[in-house]
Write a structure and sequence with these properties.
By secondary structure, the protein is an alpha+beta fold. The protein has four domains: 4-155, 3-Layer(aba) Sandwich (Rossmann fold); 186-432, no CATH class; 440-487, no CATH class; 504-602, no CATH class.
């Protein structure tokens, strides 16, 4: 069986999908030839008989590994299209481009065999429903997976060997570089880089870190919330790292500011410990007196142990043969070290006995007790570090569930305390002020007018239509210019010469036709000549044609009479004459030379009006 004989008309009536993939971003950037070869499979699909409209390229997986460890949206789309029976052939540069693990590979073979879908690569075409073709594809898949294993083994072996020699150098954090000596790490030579990093750490030390870090959970999906710092003030916020997006609009499950949540949780913590605050303060004050005695008692066992070790070292030294100087010298050194340890322990005990910590005075006791009345001051004191606050918080709280209700502009906090007690807090979030914007139809009108007119003319048109800015002000050239810049509307650029067949302004038409502006306006209003306005109140634009040039004749041609004479001959009113000219029933020209300028009407044969009385026989 030849390769092309495997293709049927049914398969050609479906899609031909070209799957493009490279394993890493570095390959995408550097191995351009491989990418180009994969895209050239479109030409191969056309040679096999697929029309251009039926050839689709799936290249979303460029830079992703095919080992199955990463999520490939392109491969998922390909699998879905094959499962739905929309695909007649799948083309790849080689089978390993589709998958480098047998799990994905055999699922693909089963789907293609069930839906009568061909698989093609640089070596030929295969039908997974045929035994021989399926055998070859399976063998290729197994070799591809084995090749991936061999490559990983070689790379990891080289890395481990280099690390064993102490020569492995991994990428360092931003701001650090490797030095010339082995293992030397230095700051980045660019002062701008190091200054920026120092500023970040200084700002972090000043602002401190997110209080609920590690115990804050997403109330929608249950994931731990991560802490992010954004804005010029580096305000902390809690974000859900989940891949699932709410409402399909690119909105994460939870993304709320941190300060208000932390304040609410801190207030709940202080309220919970308030009843026991006075008792804790009393116990703390009483414990200060006995703390020194307990500390002194703790130094007695180490002193006794040091004395015992010194006596033991002494006995060992005395038992050794004095002539055996090698052994005696070592035992003598050990004895001296033990004596020094005893001396240091005795000095520490003596220092504590001579300078005991003074007991609290009455004023100091009163100050300690006053802290119980204002735990908030103690919690917010500069002497209370972030670490202290976190330790106190985690001693009582196990987790905080954060659920964001966007429609209600509030956050619901669920606090699970140590011991199983659960409490809820509803926290209102500040609402953003309504954005003041110019009406969309006004912006659309400016977009249309800017093609033909400068900003000053546009401002006049908008004001004549009684339009205002978003703050209620009338338009001028500067405000129109600012609005154009904000919405990315190009500025009007007048052409050097009006293009042939393009409408021109009244001023340009006056120069071309040699008539007064009032004449053009009057005939435009009467409908005798054609013109256009982009919007009511905008300047008129006139299309210069041969017929229009003939309309404004220098002298009246033969058979053309003034409008008054036409009214008399036709026996109709002026308005009726003008209406017949507009409808094309009468020909008219405008005379711009001579003593009698104005409109001339061509009247062929006088006609009688319907309401005229017939002439008498003697008349």
């Amino acid at each position: 069986m030849t390769e092309r004989s495997k293709i049927t008309s049914s398969q050609r009536s479906r899609l031909a999908i070209v799957y493009v993939r490279q394993s890493t971003n570095a390959q995408v950037e550097c191995n351009r030839e491989s990418t180009e070869r994969q895209y050239q499979l479109r030409t191969f699909a056309a040679q096999l008989g697929w029309p251009a409209a039926a050839i689709r390229v799936i290249d979303q997986d460029l830079g992703l590994s095919g080992s199955g460890l990463s999520t490939r949206s392109g491969f998922a789309e390909l699998t879905a299209e094959v499962a739905l029976g929309h695909v007649g052939i799948v083309l790849a540069l080689e089978v390993s481009r589709l998958a480098r693990n047998n799990a994905d590979g055999y699922r693909r073979l089963d789907l293609c065999g069930t839906t009568d879908t061909l698989i093609g690569d640089a070596d030929g075409l295969y039908h997974p429903g045929l035994f021989n073709d399926r055998l070859v594809l399976g063998l290729k898949g197994t070799m591809s997976e084995a090749e991936l294993h061999v490559l990983r083994a070689r790379l990891n072996g080289g890395i481990r060997n280099k690390a064993a020699r102490g020569e492995l150098r991994r990428g360092l954090p931003i701001g650090l570089v490797w030095g010339a000596a082995d293992g030397e790490v230095r700051f980045h030579p660019d002062a701008a880089v190091t200054d920026a990093i120092r500023a970040v750490f200084e700002r972090f030390a000043e602002m401190g870190s997110a209080l609920l870090q590690g115990i804050a959970l997403c109330g929608h999906c249950g994931r731990k919330l991560r802490v992010a710092y954004s804005g010029r003030s580096a305000v902390a916020s809690y974000d859900c790292p989940g891949d699932t997006l709410a409402n399909g609009r690119g909105q994460a499950c939870v993304r709320v500011g941190g300060p208000r949540i932390q304040q609410a949780v801190s207030a709940a913590l202080l309220a919970a410990v308030q009843p026991a605050a006075l008792q804790a303060a009393l116990e703390a004050a009483e414990g200060l007196d006995s703390a020194e005695q307990a500390a002194l008692a703790q130094w007695q066992p180490p002193l006794e142990q040091a004395r015992y070790q010194a006596q033991l070292a002494q006995r060992r030294y005395q038992r050794v043969d004095p002539d055996n100087r090698l052994v005696a010298r070592g035992l003598e050194t050990a004895w001296e070290a033990a004596l020094q340890t005893v001396q240091r322990a005795e000095q520490e005990v003596q220092r504590r006995q001579q300078h005991p910590q003074q007991a609290l005075s009455a004023a100091e006791r009163e100050a300690v007790l006053s802290l119980a009345d204002d735990l908030q001051a103690l919690w917010s004191a500069p002497s209370t570090s972030d670490r202290d606050r976190k330790e106190l918080l985690r001693a009582l709280l196990e987790e905080v569930m954060v659920a964001h209700a966007r429609e209600a502009h509030q956050v619901h906090l669920t606090l699970r305390w140590t011991g199983g007690l659960i409490s809820d807090i509803d926290l209102a979030l500040p609402q953003r002020a309504a954005t003041v914007r110019t009406d969309e139809d006004t912006v659309a009108l400016i977009r249309r007018l800017a093609v033909h007119y400068p900003d000053a003319v546009i401002a006049g048109v908008l004001n004549r239509q009684q339009r205002t800015t978003a703050t209620g002000l009338p338009f001028n050239a500067n405000r129109v210019s600012s609005l154009r810049t904000h919405w990315g509307i190009a500025c009007f650029t007048p052409p050097a010469e009006p293009p042939a067949g393009e409408p021109v302004t009244i001023r340009e038409a006056v120069a071309i036709l040699g008539v007064a502006p009032s004449t053009l306006h009057r005939q435009l209003n009467d409908g005798l000549i054609a013109g256009e306005q982009v919007t009511p109140g905008a300047p008129w634009r006139i299309l210069i044609t041969d017929a229009l040039r003939a309309h404004f004749a220098g002298e009246a041609p033969e058979g053309y009479v003034p409008i008054v004479e036409a009214m008399r001959r036709l026996g109709v009113s002026r308005q009726t004459v003008l209406q017949r000219v507009k409808r094309g029933e009468l020909e008219a020209v405008h005379v711009s030379q001579g003593n009698r300028k104005g409109l001339r009407i061509k009247v062929q044969n006088p006609t009688r009006d319907l309401f005229d009385e017939p002439a008498s026989a003697g008349g």
